[in-house]
Automatic annotation (TrEMBL):
Keyword Iron: no
Keywords of this entry: Membrane, Transmembrane, Transmembrane helix, Transport
Membrane spanning stretches: 111-129, 141-159, 165-189, 201-220, 232-255, 304-328, 340-357, 369-387, 399-421, 433-455
Record's protein name: Major facilitator superfamily domain-containing protein
InterPro entries for this protein: MFS, MFS_trans_sf
Compartments, record wording: Membrane
The keyword Transport is assigned to this record: yes
GO annotation, cellular component aspect: membrane
MF terms in GO: transmembrane transporter activity
Gene3D superfamilies reported in the protein's UniProt record: MFS general substrate transporter like domains
PANTHER family per UniProt: PERMEASE-RELATED, TRANSPORTER, PUTATIVE (AFU_ORTHOLOGUE AFUA_6G08340)-RELATED
Membrane topology: Multi-pass membrane protein
C-alpha cells in the first residue's frame, strides 16, 4: 500500500480526511457550520440557500427513519437470519443421525464451503444489484429479492446431500447480493453524509439482532425434531424462509421510491428532501452506469485503502459470527442449548453499541478513531482465547473465556462508521453504485477467507490439539492488530 500513501493530500482531495488523530476530535461535538475539515462538511456547505425551518427538516428525517430506515432494517434482519443460520443449525442434534452434518453427509470442509459459497455469488453481483435497484427503485427491488431468497431458504429443507446444500447456498447469494450495498446506496438518496453513520449503525444492529434471534429460534426448533417427519434443522429453514416471503408485503408498502417521485411525501417535503443536500446528493436523474465513473473509482487510492482496511476488519467478524456457537459447544463444552443461548446474549449485548457509537461519530463528525478504537478493544479477547487454546491447563474458567467473546464483538461497531465514511466520499449514483459495491465486496471476500482460514486451522489443529484453534486465534489477533497500518 506504500505507493498509495505517499501523500495524505491525494486522499484528502478525494474527501478522505485522515489527519484528525487528536482525541480532541473524538470528544468535541462538530457543528455543520464553520470551518470544514472533511468531505461531508464540504458537501453540506454547498447546499442551496435554505428556505425551510430546522423543524421542517427534522420532521422529514423522522419520516424517513420510518419509511426508509425501518424497512431496510427488516430486510437486513431477515437476510442475515437466513444467511447466518447454518452456524446455529449445525449443532442441533449434533453427532446424531438427525444432525445437519450427518443427514447430508458433510465431511471435512464441506460445511465451510456451504457458508462461503454464498459470498462468491454475492461478490459477483454487487455492482449489477446496485444498478438494478437504481433502475427499478428500492420499493420494487427489495420485496422481489425477499421473495426469491425466502423461497431458496425453504428449499434447503429438502436437500439430501452436500452437493444440494452447496447449490442452494450459492443460489441464495444471488438475491442477497444487493442487501447491504443497495441499502447503502438507497440511504445516499435520502440522508446527508452527517446523518448516515447513525442510520447505518441502526441498520447493522439488525445483524446482531438476527444472530441472537437465530440462536433462540434454533433452541425452539430443536424441540420440533421428528415432528411432521422433519428434523430440527429442516424446521429452521422452513420457518426462517417463510418470514421474508410474508414480510415482503409490509416492506413494499413502507418503502419510498426516490425523493423526486415519492407520493408518500408532500410537495414541500419532496422539495426539502431534494435540496437539503447540495453536491453530495444522489439523484434519480443521475446516470445509472458510467464507464468513466468506474475507471475513476478504481484509479483512486482511497478505493484500495478502504478495501484492504475493510477486509482486515471483517475477516474475523464473519468467522466469529458463524463459528461462535461451535466454539462454545466444542471448545468450552457448553450444551447445545447453552451454546445458542450464550451466543444470543453476546449479540444482544452489542446491540445498543451499534446505535451509540455511530451516533457519537455523527455528533463529533470524527471517523478515524471511531473506526480504530473498537478494533483495539477486541484484540485482548482473541489474545486470551489464543493463550487458553495453547495452554489447556491455563486455570481460566469457561465463563471468563466466554466473556472474551464480548470483547471480540466490539469490532462489529466499526462497520457502519467505515461504510458511512466511504459513502461520504462518493458523488452521484454511478460513483455510489461502483464505489459502495467495491467497499462491500471486501466484506464478501473477508467472509470467504475467514471461513476457509478457520477450516484450515481446524484441520491442522485437529491432529494434535482438537478442538483447539491456536493458529486461527493467533492469526485473527494479528490481523486485527496490523490492519491499522494500511
Amino acid at each position: 500500500m506504500a505507493p498509495f500513501l505517499r501523500s495524505s493530500k491525494a486522499l484528502q482531495q478525494e474527501g478522505v480526511y485522515i489527519g484528525g488523530w487528536s482525541f480532541r476530535n473524538v470528544l468535541t461535538p462538530k457543528k455543520s457550520a464553520g470551518v470544514h475539515s472533511s468531505a461531508e462538511d464540504t458537501v453540506e456547505r454547498n447546499a442551496v440557500e435554505q428556505d425551510w425551518t430546522a423543524e421542517e427538516e427534522r420532521a422529514l428525517v423522522r419520516k424517513l427513519d420510518l419509511r426508509v430506515l425501518f424497512p431496510c432494517c427488516i430486510v437486513y434482519f431477515l437476510a442475515y437470519l437466513d444467511r447466518a443460520n447454518l452456524g446455529n443449525v449445525r449443532i442441533l442434534e449434533e453427532e446424531t443421525p438427525d444432525g445437519l452434518e450427518e443427514s447430508l453427509r458433510l465431511h471435512g470442509t464441506d460445511f465451510n464451503w456451504a457458508v462461503s459459497i454464498t459470498y462468491f455469488a454475492v461478490t459477483a453481483l454487487l455492482i449489477p444489484s446496485n444498478l438494478l435497484m437504481k433502475k427499478i427503485s428500492a420499493k420494487n427491488f427489495f420485496p422481489l429479492v425477499m421473495i426469491l431468497w425466502g423461497t431458496i431458504v425453504m428449499s434447503i429443507s429438502s436437500v439430501k446431500s452436500a452437493a444440494g446444500l452447496l447449490a442452494a447456498r450459492f443460489m441464495l447469494g444471488i438475491p442477497e447480493s444487493g442487501v447491504v450495498p443497495c441499502c447503502v446506496l438507497y440511504f445516499s438518496f435520502w440522508y446527508k453524509p452527517s446523518e448516515r453513520s447513525f442510520r447505518l449503525g441502526v441498520f447493522h444492529s439488525a445483524n446482531a439482532l438476527a444472530s441472537a434471534v437465530s440462536g433462540l429460534l434454533a433452541i425452539a426448533m430443536n424441540h420440533l425434531n421428528g415432528h411432521g417427519g422433519l428434523k430440527a434443522w429442516q424446521w429452521v429453514f422452513l420457518i426462517e424462509g417463510a418470514l421474508p416471503i410474508g414480510l415482503s408485503v409490509v416492506v413494499y408498502f413502507l418503502l419510498l421510491r426516490f425523493p423526486e417521485t415519492s407520493t408518500a411525501l408532500t410537495e414541500r417535503q419532496r422539495y426539502i428532501a431534494i435540496h437539503r443536500f447540495g453536491r453530495g446528493s444522489t439523484r434519480k436523474t443521475d446516470v445509472t452506469w458510467s464507464w468513466p465513473a468506474f475507471i475513476r473509482i478504481f484509479s483512486r487510492p482511497s478505493t484500495y485503502v478502504f478495501f484492504v482496511s475493510y477486509v482486515s476488519l471483517c475477516i474475523v467478524c464473519v468467522a466469529q459470527a458463524t463459528f461462535l456457537p461451535t466454539i462454545l459447544s466444542s471448545f468450552l463444552k457448553f450444551s447445545v442449548t447453552k451454546s445458542n443461548l450464550y451466543t444470543a446474549v453476546c449479540n444482544l449485548t452489542v446491540l445498543p453499541l451499534y446505535w451509540i457509537w455511530p451516533f457519537h461519530s455523527d455528533w463529533t463528525r470524527e471517523r478515524m478513531w471511531h473506526y480504530i478504537f473498537p478494533v483495539l478493544c477486541s484484540i485482548p479477547g482473541y489474545a486470551v482465547w489464543t493463550y487458553a487454546s495453547a495452554h489447556p491447563d491455563n486455570g481460566i474458567s469457561n465463563i471468563a473465556l466466554y466473556g472474551m467473546a464480548f470483547l471480540g464483538q466490539m469490532v462489529l461497531i466499526s462497520q457502519p462508521v467505515v461504510l458511512s465514511y466511504r459513502s461520504s466520499t462518493l458523488y452521484g449514483a454511478a460513483e455510489q453504485a461502483v464505489g459502495g459495491a467495491a467497499a462491500v465486496a471486501s466484506l464478501s471476500i473477508a467472509s470467504i477467507l475467514g471461513m476457509h482460514h478457520v477450516a484450515h486451522c481446524r484441520l491442522v489443529d485437529s491432529h494434535k490439539q482438537a478442538p483447539r484453534y491456536t493458529p486461527s486465534g493467533t492469526a485473527h489477533a494479528t490481523t486485527k492488530a496490523s490492519w491499522r497500518r494500511v
